[in-house]
Amino acid sequence: MPVTEPPLLGRTRSPVGWVVAFVQAPAVDVLEADLGWRRGLGQRLEVSPPTPFPACLSLLEPLEAPWTTELVIDCGRWTAYLNNDKNGGDPSAAAGELARQLGTRCVIAMHSPPHGPGHASTQMWVSGPDGEPPLLHERTLAATRQDGRWSWYESGRPLPFEDVARYGARRIRDRFDRGLLVAHLHELGIEVDDPTWFGPGVRVRQVVPWQTRPESVQEALERLEVGGR
């Protein structure tokens, strides 16, 4: 049956994919860099064969803290990168390092729907070789709610397609929502809501000697109280 519902950024696979990184390089290069980096650190790895999207998202289960499992998905000239952190993913540090090694751009997209006692977030971080050292940030937009209180943050030069007047909205939640995040990603060539844009994914699992705290997706949803006020 054809896939019709977008699974990421707070959609059908929640909380998997609340945070997704996109590295502007072919998946074969990102995977090679990741494996070389981790083996250089002495990590033992298990690497899966390519699995079609969105079935490959199930390879991230169980969700864990600390996370052990990465997913590298072929998206043509972009590569999607996720991991199995139990709070929606935590790919920013690793994806940023891989982009730095490859000398290319990295986009971190975040959307967590209302959960817990008044939490929610929509953010986009863009970094690349032309960004400001040491983290090479080019542009950051963030509308976040913690314990019911909204806050707004932006830094860097606006990207050519941005309508900066939007950020003057009285309600912070209206300044940068999921729809605008998806529109910005589209302008960057990232079609996050088109499941046909995603190719197969490869899982890289670290074999670790320490205990992790695993959860099923359903257990994570219940703990996070998704749909909370």
Task: Please explain how this structure is put together.
There is one protein chain. This protein has helices at 27-40, 92-102, 178-187, 217-224; strands spanning 19-23, 44-47, 69-75, 78-83, 106-115, 119-132, 137-146, 149-156, 201-207. By secondary structure, the protein is α+β, with helices and mostly antiparallel strands. Strands 2-9-3-4-1-5-6-7-8 form a nine-stranded antiparallel sheet, sandwiched between helices.
Characteristics of this structure?
single chain, 229 residues, alpha+beta, 9-stranded antiparallel sheet, 4 helices, 19% helix, globular
* Topology pattern, helix = H, strand = E: EHEEEHEEEEHEH
Q: First CA to last CA: what distance? A: 34 Å
Helix content, binned percent? 10-25%
How would you sum up the major sheet? 9 strands, antiparallel
Q: Please count the beta strands (DSSP E, at least 2 residues each).
A: 9
User: Strand pairing plus helix content: what structural class?
Assistant: alpha+beta
Offer a quick outline of the entry.
The protein has 229 residues and is of the alpha+beta class. The protein contains 4 helices and 9 strands.
